[in-house]
Amino acid sequence: MKKYLVLLIAVLALSGCGSNTSIVNSWRDPDVTVAQEQFKKVLVVALVKDEASRRITENRIAASNQIFRTSYQFLNETTKHFTQEQKLKILQDENFDGVVTMRLVSTEKETNYVPGTYTGMYYGGFDGMYTGMYGYGFGNWYGMYSPSFYDPGYYQETTSYMVETNIFSLKQNKLIWTGTTKSEYVTDLGQTVDAIMQAVVGEMKKDGSLPK
């Protein structure tokens, strides 16, 4: 991992309304916690090829807390040819003390078979079954069996997105927390970012990086 970070990262060129997101694994520096760092100004970095997705991701995270600032304000076309040292100097001059990065690690596709379902309902009680079948013709027979339907099974393909979230201390110039999340049934980038951050915060509370 590069000594001078101004790093990259990030998330999903995904699309559209909610996702099921969970922590796959995480690690924290045993000697320091996020809470102990007491960050006052944190850069949010999302490295994606699509500039629109980058801005959606960074804006979404920045909107969650006033200490966050989007990286595209400071690291953009005008600075892309700068050295690592020059980029780090920008952050030092702007008094950043932390960096949160997101990076899409991988996508996985799974195909699952969803079994068919049978729904049926019986009207009229036990006695009605015989009177319906033998005494009152098609009307009662249809009334007894017509609510019974079969929905055939089908194959469903789902895509899972593995996203790595890192937290760096610029004061100590090192990684202090990292975690990987898995998001499924993704339909909206903004809501997925929210879900990732919620999972990350929950995990940091569990491992003691943040107070519960």
From TrEMBL:
**PROSITE patterns associated with the record:** PROKAR_LIPOPROTEIN (PS51257)
Q: Which UniProt keywords apply?
A: Signal
Record Gene3D superfamilies: 3.30.160.670
Leader sequence segment: 1-22
Q: Which domain of life is it from?
A: Bacteria
The yes or no answer to whether the keyword Signal is present is yes
Q: Which protein, by its recorded name, is this?
A: DUF4136 domain-containing protein
Per the UniProt record, the source organism is: Flavobacterium saccharophilum
